[in-house]
Design brief:
By secondary structure, this protein is α/β, with parallel strands linked by helices. 54% of the residues lie in helices and 9% in strands. It is elongated and about 50 Å long.
Amino acid sequence: MDFKDTHQSFYRYDLFLENEKQNPNLLSENKLLQKVAEEVAKGDELNVQDAVAAALEIAEPQTVINQGLILGMDEVSRLWNEGTYFLPQVILSSDAMMTGIALCEEKMGKASDRKGIIVSHVAEGDIHDIGQMIVNALLRAAGFEVINLGVDVPVDQVVQACLEYRPVILTGSALMTTTMSAFPRIAAKLTGLNRNIPFVCGGGAVNEEFVNSFDLGIWSRDPTWTVGIANEVLQGYSWQQLRTKWNA
């Protein structure tokens, strides 16, 4: 069965037929790596396996990841920013990328290089994870390892995960005003333990004024903001500097 036939609920809403009439963006001068990037951008989890296998015949696994799989997700990020792609396409592309990474890691015999660890969760009492799924997909595409604690995560479990994994940033999502009160409680416990981890918060219920009312908090208006914030932590930015830059 054709890939698209098995995913009609996704493809009938996007602009794939329009995109296929155009020449794809040139993401790599190497035809095989270009093919990997294209299949990731299409969200074609089946074809990406063949594309990665072919690329691994001529390139090192980490090269296939950096110059094929991640470039494909960079294109997805661009299309997301332009409003061309939405949740279904982002998730399909993220799954395709992770399938390709697994093949590369199998060839290497070890996990691929990651920029750093990020702990992600949906606030205690909240089960709405669509926003979190998008953020996690883009963070993984940017080269981070995401520890997803899931939905309705107790405050103490979030704090314990931060102590265990020592993440670059902590992310939290809340759709309901009744659940976002968990965020300042998490931040207070982390500061009490002298763990000044930038805490990036977002979601339908969350606004800049609320997040800026407690230490460590940085409001993220858009999933791509979270990626930008995480990258700047690696450059040495403190949570105070990040708040000033992103929430000024």
